[in-house]
Amino acid sequence: MLLHTFFLLSILLSTSHASVQDFCVGDLKGAEGPAGFPCKTPATVTSDDFVFAGLSEAGNITNIINAAVTPAFVSQFPALNGLGLSAARLDLGPGGVIPLHTHPGANELLLVSKGHITAGFISSSNNVYIKVLKKGELMVFPQGLLHFQIAAGKRNAIAHAIFSSANPGLQILDFALFASNFPTPLVSKTTFLDPVIVKKLKAVLGGSG
């Protein structure tokens, strides 16, 4: 029994002094790899590295979608490097819309903090799940699925999103089709839209081809 206790004590003492890397504040000057950015030297890390104030200000919604997304991804908040989470702020004017889009690298949890937001996603089996969210309500959007948010009613709305990755990625369907150089004949062929409509949408969103 004494030998067993001594053995356990020796293990605890040997592991209690092991080096543990509590965090890895990203050095954005380095190249980003699959595991994120290289770490800043611990001696250069301060308390300010762990605070991000970028979501305290409303985004500029004077644009075609009457909405703005302010990200707090690893590129804006390097302390998220390697932690597997990030955030964003959504500002929507009356009728404002975050068009159909996906986050290929993360699940999303959306919390409404002001107004009402109609939100939904489309499953891989083409089932559609839509809900009008009120202040304080949450909705989850599974990774990689097309989803959207629209301000409901005639008031501004604000929501905050939390992602399960420091870099969730973003692809907006409308912009991929109509703000790119995706040739009009191919867009028409793959979406069944009339080429005239495709060209009109490209003119609005700045696409070519």
UniProtKB/TrEMBL annotation:
| Record-linked InterPro entries | Cupin_1, Germin, Germin_Mn-BS, RmlC-like_jellyroll, RmlC_Cupin_sf
Protein name, entry field: Germin-like protein
Superkingdom assignment: Eukaryota
Tell me which GO cellular component terms the UniProt record holds.
apoplast
Give the GO molecular function terms. manganese ion binding
* Coiled coil ranges: none
Report the sequence similarity comment from the record. Belongs to the germin family.
List positions binding Mn(2+). Answer: H101, H103, E108, H147
Identify the keywords attached in UniProt to this record, alphabetized. Answer: Apoplast, Disulfide bond, Glycoprotein, Manganese, Metal-binding, Receptor, Secreted, Signal
Report disulfide bridges, numbered on this chain.
C24-C39
- PANTHER family membership: GERMIN-LIKE PROTEIN SUBFAMILY 3 MEMBER 3
Compartments in which it is found: Secreted, Extracellular space, Apoplast
Q: Which Gene3D superfamilies match?
A: Jelly Rolls (2.60.120.10)
User: Is Flavoprotein found in the keyword set?
Assistant: no
Give start and end of each Cupin type-1 domain: 53-199
